Amino acid sequence: MQALFDNISELKNINTLSKHEQLVNGILNTIESKELKQGDRLPSINVMVAEIGYARKTIVKAYEDLKGRGIVVSKNFKGYFIADVNTKTKLRVCLLLYSFQTFQEDFYNTFREELGKKYIINVFFHHNNTDVFKDILERTSGRYGMYVVAPIQAPEISDMLQEIPSEKLLIIDRYLKMPPAYSYISQEFENSTYRQLKKLLPAILKYKTFILFYRDDKDYPIGILNAFNKFIAEFYINGKVVKRYKKESIEKNTLYFFINDSYLWEVLRDSKTNRFALGKDIGVIAHNDNAIKEILFGGITTISTDFKKMAIEAARYVKFRDPISKITTSELIQRNSL
């Protein structure tokens, strides 16, 4: 380990570097000179204190910084080890999403592009399953420098996430009540969905029936259901909530509102089979916009958050750690399906 101690000592003469930066750069330099290899054990905290003379918290901070980049890993009761010799990595990011739906793919691609190649992003999916969510958090605990999480909206999830330091966690997509120190970029569903439905009132009135597909056993936002029920009651719309779409049950003069795309594809297939024209024989509104909905059947009307903008703001937080508490609203993109 003498090479490591020598490299750190040389950096002590550079006044522009903090003690923390001297330690980090000293370790990186020793890796680059191949005097530290993958699997090698780093000196213990006590040994570093004795050899370098810096406070324990300064050394721990340097080791934790390198853990966040994925360069160092800690093993219980065994110490710190070199896990990766790619010293150009700035940060390892754990991105935990519901599932890889098209709009979340848009988020990921933009997030990836904004961060650049020096950031390593590992993506996980919890599928709105608390046990899966908990297992992922346990397996990734302490292995990443940043966690960007689309949470399950439950108090026990909030308790789990509070085990992550606030500066290393960003909540995205769904709102979850957390202590004020935690940052979030979350959607608001009820008021914004209601406002957009009001904008569509003249088009909605063309149809005899307005149907929302909503399943309470899925991760569907309750705010959309509340907005729909408020809207049809206020404007005396013949509306109803249905859990599932039954194949070949499509009817003329009906407007369909989808949260999940799987039912949307089924209705579009049946409309093609029956030669129903969108915007004339039937109407379609979908939640969450994407490129496919922009071009399919001449364009599907959507009520959606701008996930690309959310991804840009999330990437900015990862880079600069400026606290953010933002609620994003859903916007209307009206196309030919009405």
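(ticket continues) Second input and output from the same batch:
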Amino acid sequence: MVKMKAVLAFLVIFGVHSIDAFLSVRNTSFYYGKDKVFLSGANIAWFNFARDFGSGGYYQVRSRFETAINEISSNGGNVIRVWVHTDGQWSPKWDQNGFATGEDTQSLIQELGLMLDYAASKNVFVILVLWNLDVTPQPMLHLYTEDDKLQAYLDRVLKPLVAGLKDKKALAAWDLVNEPMGSLSQWQQDPNPCYDTTHLKDTGAGWAGTTINYQNILKLINWHADAIKSVDPKALVTNGESGEFTTTTICEKCRDHYSDECLIGAGGRAKGTIDFYAMHSYTWEGRYQPTSPFKHNFDFYKKNKPFVVEEFSTTNSESHSPVWNYHHIYEGGFGGILSWQYNEEGKWVDSKQSMFEGMSSIRNLTSNGKIDIKL
């Protein structure tokens, strides 16, 4: 009887632990079980642009992802950010009328699952980015304007994908659209401040060359977030934006377009909100904006949700010190910091040596959350 009670007690404890063993948000911090967590790591945006996952794509780059995860983990990192569809040129599969067919959904589940399982074995969280808006994403532009095609994607691809991955401990969050500001006009007038973009004049918005109505972008985010949470209520959702101008209210040109009010207003779906803010911060001509997170602590922004510096590079910073940058964001009360980017390709990228130096310098800190976690 004593042995039976011990077994039952173990099962109860294990059951509770397994339910709690996913990244969650409490107030303005991340938690894994009972432990407050700080996310420290790097972007692995892609090895094969837009083709890393689905229809066998992962098997071409699997060893490279596993090497990257190993190196980030061994240098004290606990999170990576990877891109799934990107511009839609490879996944999802579309029919001749632009509807997602769902024919590659199972391959996406299998391949992302393999990557997530490996990341979990190395105690590394993964943020999955679905779409990109800092370049012209021709194959998926119709999702912003044609509701029936957007709903088909959600039903045939995203919802099954969430269902297939929801039990993966390494899955930290879904990041919906990378840098919408790149496709925003600086002159879109609207009586609703959520959709008006005139405050973005002279901010650099619109660099991608394709202009999309802000309400349509916010509607897409709202519908995606609602679809994810309808399948997996514990899932965390965010949206990676390129600065303070569209995510905060702390400057004259700043407006929080990703508030619950703006997102629900744009799409009408009650669960379609973000759980934390994800900002990208780079210098321009060697200087940060006065409102950059590298100039302030978390409290400055008066946020009621966690705030992650999801993209930055020491190469494109003011200090040029990875140790200073990682320490500032950690000690400033933010929720995380991720360097751009592991494969060292493109502009404004850090070397692996630089990002590993930053991660390693904070790996044992605990005052603003644990980094050394066990999944």
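Agent notes: Residues 159 and 202 are 39 Å apart (CA to CA). The first strand starts at residue 23 and ends at 26. Closing as not reproducible unless the customer responds.
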